[in-house]
Write a structure and sequence with these properties.
30% strand; three-stranded antiparallel sheet; mainly beta
Length: 133
């Protein structure tokens, strides 16, 4: 995919903390139950931690009990890129920011009781939060 935001690896390393870089650019996963946005409940918008593109509205966030912030849909289908992920001996669907290609987490079809049935399981460190005015 051709991303609107294009930066060199050196530029990303300069702008992001080592932990952010590992997750956003290296597809690492933060430990469950450690993310700053896990218990965030204010109204607002979650944006990409690398480029600030809008990704999820707070009204779509739900407590899935998985240890990472979970949402049942993105702000619009074009906000995220879904990619088949065959790492770790299983098939999953990786979620990336469609604006810069940064790794956000994975989406699963086990969002029971949500309007879409989806659970976008996002790394807290991959997101920023902008409170509604």
């Amino acid at each position: 995919m051709d991303y609107e935001v294009k930066k060199s690896d050196a530029e990303w390393r300069e702008e992001l903390t080592p932990d952010q870089y590992a997750v956003l650019r290296g597809a690492a996963t933060e430990r469950a139950w450690t993310g700053e946005l896990l218990d965030e409940s204010r109204a607002g918008v979650y944006t990409c931690g690398a480029c600030n593109a809008e990704l999820f509205k707070s009204g779509t966030k739900f407590d899935s009990g998985c240890g990472w912030p979970s949402f049942y849909e993105s702000v619009n289908p074009e906000a995220v890129e879904l990619i088949e992920d065959n790492t770790l001996g299983m098939v999953r669907t990786e979620v990336r920011c469609a604006n810069c290609g940064s790794h956000l987490g994975h989406v699963f079809d086990d969002g029971f009781g949500t309007p879409t049935g989806d659970r976008y399981c996002m790394n807290s460190i991959s997101l920023n939060f902008k409170e509604a005015e």
